[in-house]
Every structure is written in C-alpha cells, then in structure tokens.
Design a protein that fits this description.
about 160 residues, mainly beta
C-alpha cells in the first residue's frame, strides 16, 4: 500500500557529467529530477507495484521514504530513485538480501537499513548522507558498497 502525500511537484535538471554503465542499461534516470512532495510509505504485498507506480511519475522523494513489511528480495522496483530528502528506512524485509535496485540513489537525508544485510551493496552512487547512517539493529560487518560516499553529516 503506497501512501504518497501529494503528487510530484518540481522538475530540475541535474547532471554530474559521469555515467557508470558497467551494471546498468539505458539512460541515467537522474539527469532530470522529478520530486514527489511529502513522505512516501511502501508496504505490503503490492510493494513492487507501488514502487513501479512511483517511478512512473517521480525519481525523488521530498520527505521520508519508508519501505516496510515487504516480501521483496531486492529493490529493483525502486531503480529510478535518485534522492530522498528525508530518511530512507528499510525495515521488516526478511527476504531482502541486498540493496540492489538503489544503484542510482545519490543523496539521502538519513539511511536506516535492516541489520540482516551483510553490507551496503547496491548503493554504488550514494555520495551524500546529510544526516545519520543507522543500521536497524546491529551494524553490517562492512561498509562495502558505499565506495562513492564522500559525506555523512550525522554524528
């Protein structure tokens, strides 16, 4: 069940000048940013469809993005996601084995991930966490997968 406070609002062009095509196909979804205002909650049996619906109209969330109580094994349905202004929290996802699908995510306000993940594989383009990086439970053994991370703003 998706809970999107309002429809997508703003479109702004951002281009980093580089594109890594080693594990993706097609154009970079983050060349133009389309923001969905407010918070977004994705949960339940329709999570993959709800993420696909979100990706059809936006690629950034102004507020928090909560992905919870899902049976997904990966987050490929969220492959459009480029920015989350608030906290990206993934919880109650017992079948999730990694964060694949979030390869284009570049910036988040905060990051909370399941403690069942061995590392942060799937976040290859994440450069900025303006708030905290918080494992949901005990920390993954390694920061593997956060190779592009240059800034963490929280304590």
């Amino acid at each position: 069940r998706a809970n999107d406070d309002t429809a997508p609002t703003d479109t702004a062009s951002t281009d980093t000048g580089t594109t890594d095509t080693s594990t993706t196909t097609g154009p970079d979804p983050c060349v133009t940013i389309t923001v969905s205002a407010g918070d977004l909650t994705i949960s339940g049996e329709t999570a993959a469809d709800d993420l696909a619906t979100f990706c059809a109209t936006a690629n950034a969330v102004e507020g928090d993005l909560l992905i919870q109580d899902v049976e997904l094994t990966d987050l490929r349905a969220a492959s459009c996601l480029c920015e989350v202004g608030g906290t990206l929290q993934v919880s109650i996802a017992p079948n999730l084995v990694d964060l694949h699908g979030l390869e284009h995510l570049r910036s988040v306000g905060g990051l909370i991930v399941p403690n069942s993940l061995p590392d942060y594989t799937g976040l290859r383009d994440l450069t900025t966490i303006t708030g905290d990086l918080t494992p949901n439970g005990s920390a993954p053994d390694a920061l593997h997968g956060l190779d592009a991370l240059t800034r963490v703003g929280g304590a």
